[in-house]
Design goal:
It contains 26 helices and six strands. By secondary structure, the protein is mostly helical. Among the domains are: 260 residues, no CATH class; 90 residues. The longest helix is centred in the middle third of the chain and has 20 residues.
Amino acid sequence: MIHATSCQSARRHRRRAWSCARLFSVCFLFLFFAADTRATDPVGDSIDWKKEKEFWSFQVPKASPQPKVTNRQWPRQPVDYFILSRLEQRKLSPSKEADRLTLVRRVTLDLTGLPPTPTEVQAFLHDRRADSYEKLVARLLDSPAFGERMASLWLPLARYAEDQAHMVGADSSLTYPNAFRYREWVINAFNRDLPYDQFIRFQLAADSVGGAKSDDMAALGFLGLGPKYYSRGRPDVMADEWEDRVDTISRATLGLTVACARCHDHKFDPITMRDYYALAGVFASTKMVNKTADGKNLEGKVTADKMPADTAHLVEDGEVQNLNIFLRGNVEAKGPLVERSFLHILSKGEPVPFKDGSGRRELAEAIVSRDNPLTARVMVNRAWGLFFGRPLVPTPSNLGHSGMTPTHPELLDDLAVRFMQGGWSVKSLARELVLSATYRQASRDDAKKAAADAANDSLWRMNRRRLSIEQWRDSVLAITGELTPASGKSPELDDAKNLRRTVYARVSRLKLNDLLMQFDYPDANVHAEKRSTTITPTQKLFLLNSPFVLERAKVFAAKLAGEVPGGDKPRIERAYQLLFGRAPERAEVSAAVEFLRKPTAGEMSRWEQYAQMLFASNEMLYLD
């Protein structure tokens, strides 16, 4: 399937070095689009709007009655009835519940991004009260680490970064030395369970919506930290920046690839050039500013080292303007003037023009309206993907015609409705998902079930997942006892003194940190709907040779020697408790002892080498 998101890549290619495979697909689509006669007549008159609104994602989600199931003892949460009903229809049964050790490690890493301590593991294993798991989940949701974990989901969607991909020499005037203020706002918003509709409103228009406090102005970094290009006074350059805003907002919140309509009516979805320029006009009516705490804008070029410490990078209204359609995307070929408004397909009748300044507030209200069929669906789908390893709609930022259909449409709709009815609470959504019997299943394979559903689309077991780079690095630091609970300005990830959580490290558009790149952190130049999971030789080479890993191995070996002054076996047992929350098996102890008793080779002691191997083990890298 050719996805519509490829079309905007052609325009960005002149600014970035895209991969050969990406370039090939872009060239193919360029030839395809070149023959489009609609590009010269961008009015969308041929669209049957009534018929288009019958498409599943453009219909307002509806709550479903509880599905009938045979095994009524299994469900624990409303979502379980939908999963079990599908399983029973396919003559499948759910897997047994995972053991308590697996559960405590799984849910702790999922909700906080950190591993449970041996004390926490033992407390849960010995707590046999009926509500022990529910109390564990409640404690984890109340932890400040929950916001840090959720920020790792949101920041790549917002293409968060602290510099530009197009820096010349030492000119840092277009960078964002205080980008961390937006990141901290996102973390705090998740921790205080700011309703998701307000979460969106504040990021688009905190300066003009009710309920926003002075601290919420940092939310405007969602737009204020976007890419800036050189020669920003040129119309074609500004058009590229407007496209970034339209693309990021539409894909992150609506799950639609609206930017594909910049040069022609959308090839797959009912989105016209009029729709695109109606939204682009909102951002053409704004300006990106560096604002100090006293409300003053820094004028002219100010390099990063000269910027006051209280500066925030925000967006505010500028000269309000409507845009002409640029025929075939050419800023010199102007078509009809388009008033700023929302998408036709998501409006009742003709879109109502925006009149309040740039229209950011009205746009935010349209996005979070209960009548909008997409916003709630998109968020619950992302949350499902975070906790189950695969979203219900496999293309989470494309719920249009060129995206994939949901595996469980009734479940997706029911979750979306209850998400809105429950006050858009992200914590309540997370609580239901991790308390479900579906989430608590073991991840072990079953040959007969795999033959019927090899992809596990019906969720007859839990998906085994590799930890994100943030989870793995933070786990290593937590296990060695070095993790520093600090926020503020962003240190380089490679700084030997940086012992903070990975989410607080600097993210670059110019050159993404090698560690982040090797372990599939998304490109910060564009909205990233999900992460790849690759297995490459460079990942293992990093684990074998990285100064970070080598130093952590030395610290861990010293920690074990200090905590367990006895022989090798007690230290091995303690190492397994700290890393995996369990006691080692007899064969694991024997293999470790045999290795440790061999003569030391190289600069590292045998215990340091053993610690390094444990950090690189599959059990450390994967989550059952």
